[in-house]
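Exam revision sheet. Question 4 asks you to relate a sequence to its structure. Input first:
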Amino acid sequence: MNQAALSRPLEWLAQAASLDRPARALATVTARRHGPLVAAARGRPLGHPVHPAFTDLPIGFWTSATVLDLVGGRGSSNAARHLIGWGVLTALPTVATGLADAPTLSTRKQRVMAVHAAANLAATGGYAASWALRRRGRDTTGVLVGLGAAAVASVGGYLGGWLTMGQEPRPRRRSGGSAGDDRELAAEAVVEALAGRQVATAESCTAGRIASALATVPGAIDFFAGTLVGYQDEVKRDQLGVRAESVYSSQAVEEMVRGACRLFDVPAAVATSGVVGDEPEDGVAPGTVFIATAVDGVVNARRHRFDGAPEERCEQAATQALRDLALDLAAT
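Answer key, structure tokens:
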């Protein structure tokens, strides 16, 4: 069996929109919590997730119990029962750290996570039943139930290994794909980096293209707060609080992105303003676009230059804005 065949079930799960409801339910448990306990559960103080390390505890206890069941003989039944009990107890913090990580996953990985969580919950329940049976002296039945739980836990472990180490399946861009494909992939990168945060956009020259890309990512209702498309200068000044002398400037997009964060009450936003037409504006050359991002109060503004017809410049600017936002989100 080749690698493609092994990954096919994961690709199916990652694309199964029917899993969105349970996946969102699990992700929202800690999505809006940002206290020290959640930060610790996500491994922020260490700089990496702690959930994979916690999984070693129940897996180690349960695997040791299985070995004793298979080769240890009757004299090891008491030790096996204790190992299974410790595995069930250590599964509790393991579940907590897994739930803490859930909002940081992309929509596709959250779908796989929902099945991973269900398998591990079933395995934990099976091991708890095995412990109870053994405690009542029904060792043979307890061993059989434990072996069944081990099989289910193996499925959960396989899915968990992919969540930790695997590359997320993505729709593959066809040869000669459109610029819209690039924008969609850039939007997915933003969602993957949001880590439970909500985002908004304030657009001028891109005319809603950024918002459109974000809104078409599955589960957008959970992370996309909204957009303000202000093509006229007065809209930018009245609605977003732009005070810069020229709306075609880094200062203007910095004020726009801060205004979007205030307007939609979100910690992350991106704003665009520039000249995508063929004539200069306020001394700014055609194809010049200013892009600003805001992530947790930190604002970055960049100046880009795009070639091609006005439509192509709009598309390139929207894709670049999403890439800039994904980059700054990932840096936090």
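Marking note for examiners. Residues 180-330 form a domain with the Maf protein fold (CATH 3.90.950.20).
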